[in-house]
Amino acid sequence: AFKAAVLIQQWYRRHVARLEMRRRCTWRIFQSIEYSCEQDQLKLHNFFSYLMDHFTPSSSKERDFISRMFISGESFKEAELEKYCDYESMEVPDSYTGPRLSFPLLPDHATALLEAFKQKQQLHARYVLNLLQETRKHLKQLPNISHVSTCYSEEVTVCGDLHGQLDDLFFIFYKNGLPSPSKSYVFNGDFVDRGKQSLEILIILFTFLLIYPNEVHLNRGNHEDYMVNLRYGFCAGLMAMLRIHGKKILKMVQNVFCWLPLATLIDQKVLIIHGGISDTTDLDMLEKIQRNKFISVLRGKKRKESNRNVEIQEINGENKAEADPAGNEAAPSLSLQPQPTQAPSMANRLEFSRWVRQTVQEQIEWCRRLVDISESEEEELTYSSVVSLTDLDGPCWTRQEEWKQILDILWSDPMPQEGCRVNTVRGGGCYFGPDVTEKILDKYNLQFLIRSHECKQEGYEFCHSRKVLTIFSASNYYEIGSNRGAYVKLGPDLVPHFVQYQSSKAAHTLTMTQRQGFTFALYSLIEESAFRALREKLFAHTTALIGAFKAYDKDNTGRITLSNWATAVESVVQLGLPWRMLRPQLVRSTAEGMLEYKSWLDDLAMEQRSQEHIQSGLLEVIYRNRSNLETIFRIIDRDHSGLISFEEFHQTWKLFSSHMNIELTDDGINDLVRSIDFNKDGNIDFNEFLEAFRLVKQSQ
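Structure for Serine/threonine-protein phosphatase, as requested:
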């Protein structure tokens, strides 16, 4: 009996160890693919930024299109935005049975909203816009760094990413209680995208924010960004839900996002930020930045140095005729540039600072006229603008420095190694080591940092000697059962207490015995989902993989070693995965330790062709480019109607052709757009857009 017990114990331990290893591999696959998609998003943005930098609009119509395409939201004046999003002109029909809001909001309104959303009801667009406008007014009065004290409440609850998963928010409120004067909450960004109920989460959070402004605090995340929303589903989901007034709501949400605070401090000892820090993080600078300038953090990168030099020459009043020794004729100036007055003495710092501000303002107004952007009307004083005005004698930072501060706190991740380096995996922010954490904590007399931004299997994770805590509140993020969600509670002693959960409705009704069997079955389903996504990723790089395999197959035998297979695959897809460990799940058969790579790639192609009846090479290109194509389509589709008008396509093609040095007449562009409009309805939908891409690739 003892021997049997030992054998059973050994078998069970081996089984659990294998399951854990499989779970970790599955996790690595999901996370690597997610970060790869984020990297693609930043690459796509860089492409559009390059187009912007090298495109010279030839008419006011093209300048208007550029303005709408790249600085959408900033071109709205204060009064224009409120007029455009006027909720009072909207009538609520008598047939509407959903919740109704009146301001100022009361706790009963929040309770009614929660019950309505549980019953799958929607809030009428009138109330949504009214709520967003009130939220925006409130956020504009808040500092960049919110300050929370445990003296006024028993504890503070910190929640991480929710990503549109309303069930997780319901579960948090069910277990921990609703926000109240005695129960404070900090929601640490990434409320939207990926999940299907992003708007409902925003409505609930904004409602509680207005009811309990001293107890509910919201931080901005990297997904509270218009350019990111275009790719990860929030924009498309909102427009599908609210077709009539969706455009207005999206415009207002976009403006609300840029007013969200950037960080929260608990008892001056615990700093809560969405992503992380860097070796240049400066909380004093963060506190004084006009955060609303950065509607999209992805738009902040500076142009190429050559363009920057040209801009500096223009601002300094140097024309090409003066700089060009050959004496080429300079292009005529569009408007007379203001000449700055003589600078006062540096001895009087206050007077000099005012002179700098006046001169810069004159140059900004001149640049606005140059690109045909009207001067925005005077806005009401906000907290950040008051801070700037009261600190005239302080340091002046460039927009690039301010942008980097925000980018780092929204996009960065911790790493175990010392130092600080560029975050090449995500494509934005940086990796910061324990020494960087220690430096920031010492500089500002902090105990530890709380951040989110990364999905963790258990919902939370400590690193850097427990000085950095990652909290992630979206359970089942990649797949049902893939991870737990968690939130953390801090009392006056600032000792973290965690609550973990999984809001899986399927598992709630099961008995303990059934739940164990369900868990084992779930492992297999999650693993299969991860490997299916990985095989799609590999298939999308078929051509590059063949080239990498042939580099190791000098004799053209069609076979390579498994070691060379692993090295070649990583060199192409660059996901940082343990390919030798994953090989049994990806490579079905081998002969004498050698892999016939052509037949292996054919097997990958057969899997994908079973889903799409398109030739293999073409399908590979579509798999590799679909996300980028979808994002490009949404960027062109400025009114978010799901359709591209001929005018929108015409202006976009002019932009592309400038970058690609393609000479195409207006008649040629008109012929092109008519050929893509397959159903001849005068617009291009996404299916036509994708079909046109497919046909072009097929002909190539």
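The longest helix spans residues 2-53.
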